[in-house]
Amino acid sequence: MIRMPVPLRWCDRPAPIAHPPAARRHRSRRWVGSGAPRSRAADGGDAMSAQQDVRGEFEFGLFDWVDAVPGLSPAEVYDARLRVLAEADRGGFTTYHLAEHHGTPLGLSPSPAVFLAAAARVTERIRLAPTTFIVPLYDPLRLVQEICMLDQLSHGRLDIGVGKGSSPIEAAMYGLGPADTAARFESSFPAIVEALETGRFRRPADGGGTAEEVPLHVPVYQRPHPPLWYPTSNATSIPRLGDEGYNVLFGFGFASPPLEAVREQSRIFFEHFHRSAAAGGVRYSLPGTPPRFGMLRHVLVAETDEEAVALARPAFGAHYESFTHLWRAHGSDRFTGPADFDALVAGHKLFVGSPETVAAQVARAREVGEINYFAGAFAWGSLDVETVLRSVRLFRDQVVPSVRSAVAR
């Protein structure tokens, strides 16, 4: 059984890798007025320099469902994931994203805040992002207080992903239908942000309970609030997300649209973002760099393409079973039949291969998709922790420098 020291002492942490750290975004205030960064094109620079100025430095993150691993208990899965996080904390990655799911082997972390509290104590650099807190499933005051605690525990390393939830089956477990989740999000989320900014929670008028203001004796660590993310596969949401200045993960891993569609939405997003910034909008953006517009892919890096494919094929089969569990159990036709692993690899929906192969795929995704953020899911299905750790190291030590070099050319 894999066991983590509890608590993990600072001296027990792996030493950081001597890679140049990713740019840290300032957290002190929102974009206001014409706060959009000035491109060098406006001063006579070339178009490529202008695009890099407008979209900022290319960054890398990790995405995790904490899905069930055949043969391991939940406790063993948690221990293994914390080992992976401690390794990722050494460098190369800016953010760890954790999904929230209920009643399914896809998500053994139905309470992202609990797992990220543990993660905060075994890391000291990487940012921690519940992606997402399914806002309609929470009492807003309770969620505000959990966010503040996490931000304090991590010493200001929290990002907040929010959403209405992608699964109506999971919402129904809480007695909610699609109309309920939409209404609760629209009611609760503004109250949550207001509380983070002011230090006082005011319950929405339609939220039941007392209307009395509640002071937050544990305030948020970052001012005015941690960075906000909104993952979506719904293209109709992109203009609003650009207007409001969220960071975005677009697509759904192996079920994502082609890169040409990602590029179209990236252009729409940044057009709306800069137009809104110039007009004094972007309610939820923070200064320092433009927001992230990124994509998610399953990743497995090994020494050779052949080894990576041999490891990934059975592991993805196990992950796909977990991914589709609820849909199949409820007779949905959203995912029918087995996954075509070879087609997903050939179609660049799974990034599986040697460091050279995966670096080329990530670089192509950045160029064609016009993204400024890439999140890799490294731990999934039946992959054992040593395989995942090696994949993370190869990605950090070989893929990231290769992609950064390609971006700089």
Write up this protein.
- The protein is of the alpha/beta class.
- It has a domain of 256 residues: TIM Barrel, CATH 3.20.20.30.
- Helix content is 42%, strand content 12%.
- Strands 1, 2, 3, 4, 5, 8, 9, 10, 11 and 12 form a 10-stranded parallel β-sheet that branches. Strands 6-7 form a two-stranded antiparallel ribbon.
- Strand 1, helix 2 and strand 2 form a beta-alpha-beta unit.
- Helix 3 packs parallel to helix 4, helix 7 packs parallel to helix 8 and helix 12 crosses helix 13.
- It is globular, with a radius of gyration of 21 Å.
- The N and C termini lie far apart (46 Å).
- The N terminus is likely disordered.
Sequence-ordered SSE layout with sheet pairings:
Blueprint: H1 47-55, E1 59-64, H2 74-88, E2 95-98, H3 112-122, E3 127-130, E4 133-134, H4 140-153, E5 160-163, H5 168-173, H6 178-198, E6 200-201, E7 214-215, E8 228-232, H7 238-244, E9 247-250, H8 259-278, E10 293-301, H9 305-323, H10 325-329, H11 341-346, E11 350-353, H12 355-369, E12 373-377, H13 385-408
Parallel strand pairs: 1-2, 1-12, 2-3, 4-5, 5-8, 8-9, 9-10, 10-11, 10-12
Antiparallel strand pairs: 6-7
